[in-house]
Amino acid sequence: MSTFILRSGVLILSFGIASEIVYQIYKKVKSRNNGNRRKFPKTEVLFFPDETVACKAYFTDDYGCKNSNCRFSHEENSLSKLFTYLISARISIDVCVFVITCSDLADLLVKSHKKGVVVRVVTDNEQVDVPGSQIWKLRKAGIPVRIDNSSFFMHHKFAIIDQEHLINGSFNWTQKAITGNQENILITNNEDIVLPFISEFEKLWLKFDPNQN
Amino acid sequence: MSTFILRSGVLILSFGIASEIVYQIYKKVKSRNNGNRRKFPKTEVLFFPDETVACKAYFTDDYGCKNSNCRFSHEENSLSKLFTYLISARISIDVCVFVITCSDLADLLVKSHKKGVVVRVVTDNEQVDVPGSQIWKLRKAGIPVRIDNSSFFMHHKFAIIDQEHLINGSFNWTQKAITGNQENILITNNEDIVLPFISEFEKLWLKFDPNQN
């Protein structure tokens, strides 16, 4: 009988410890991953340059940043907010951006694609082969990329998240745009603004279909 | 007495003819100058390229286009709408644009400046001396222009009309952006969007004050 009580006690104690561990992990993930869960306003305007570079892991990974000597910023800034919009996608991300050389932003597209989010990219031929271009990484990951091969620029810099949020402005997806240039991004779910951009994306997606040209 | 009646008749007839002439001119100006008087929606999204180049005179001059063989378009398009926003300014136009080489748009700034509208321009040093740059024309007309002389880009492409309407997007003020490139402009009077841009303009206006640097 005393053995039974002892075993029951150990079982209850183990269960209690296990529960506490799970709860602590939950708390840690929750506090570390605030960005991912922040409530989006209807309209948000972001300006660059940021003074520091936001830590992608801290703001977008489920377990946050594991690097105790991380040299990137864990404070919210314009880039971290952009990260959280991109990582919030559950259905689709349509990207229509002139230059994509920022590996952190390209990595988020690949991550979303691997989770099953439908990612499509439209860009310009003049920028596909510039140093640091992320187009080949995107294609290697299986993300379809369509290219404007005309002599004019596909100069847009917008993305649409879940056909709901528009991200648009002067901001190309480059490192220089994050910490150097004067840039802006408007993010909104105002349908009067988002819907015309959804149509524009579909128009260009067809226009730059290599099978149509 | 009959001379008096005759003179009165001629006077009344002359007055009638003069009235008719004035009325016809008024009708002509009104119909030609529809653009200038169109009612602006709260939010408008414009895409480029336009298929034709809008006639600046038709959409912005009080007497419209006087050229019977005009080779420019008298049909409303994205550029004509941009013209009508710019020419609607009564108090101020703050321009913060990376490249300004389009003479039609620069001419509208000069025209507004001459009417007494306070025009201010912020731009980037890398673009000041490119072929077709309109910066010197603006300065010659007395419009103050402040320049980002850093190695990074002042890459914004926005303008604020009467502190009320924001014009913003991927669109630099170039001819190529009008009839060649894929571009967008969002125009809105939504305060949640306009006010941050007003602050950004004032910040950059001070930052690039040559007396402060």
TrEMBL record, chains A, B:
Gene Ontology BP annotations: lipid catabolic process; piRNA processing
One Gene Ontology cellular component annotation held by this UniProt entry: mitochondrion
Sequence ranges assigned to domain C3H1-type in this UniProt record: 49-77
Domain PLD phosphodiesterase: 150-177
InterPro entries to which the protein is assigned, alphabetical: PLD-like_dom, PLD_domain, PLipase_D/transphosphatidylase, Znf_CCCH
Similarity section: Belongs to the phospholipase D family. MitoPLD/Zucchini subfamily.
Protein name, UniProt field: Mitochondrial cardiolipin hydrolase
